[in-house]
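debug: dumping io for the single-chain case to check the tokenizer round-trip. Nothing else runs in this session.
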Amino acid sequence: MIDPFSVWSRMFAAGVEMQSTWLRGLETVQASGAVIGARTDKMRDAATSPLTTDVAEFARIVPEKVEAFSRSAAAIARDGMAMQAAWATQMQRVGEMMLLGRMPTIGEASRLMTQSADYAVGAMTAGAKLGRGALAPVHRTATGNARRLKRAKAK
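debug: decoded output
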């Protein structure tokens, strides 16, 4: 049987998670701007004074992006596969109901309706989890770089 309070609670939690992911996305954009600005300044300084170039900072640029986006892709693949498996399970339930060769009983129809509602809410929460997992490594790298470069500039 469908528990409306549980469904509402799960939908509300998914909505809050989506909003939180959106806010982390904004933080990522702001941090990226700060990092790009700081690194552009370092590149300009390197062009005018090559002997004092911060080679360690330049050496981080590509590997950190590869690592962050690789982790993001792994999270998308993991969560996407889980969503695909849940969809396949739900379609199997629907297919079984269609192949009964008769009208479903009230109990069978009620069970499928409950499973369908649970699947729908699960798909929403899984989508929110997918977004969070995809953004987390990029957010962590961008905000970490912004903090580190800000401290280095202050010294």
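debug: round-trip ok. The chain has a mean pLDDT of 94.
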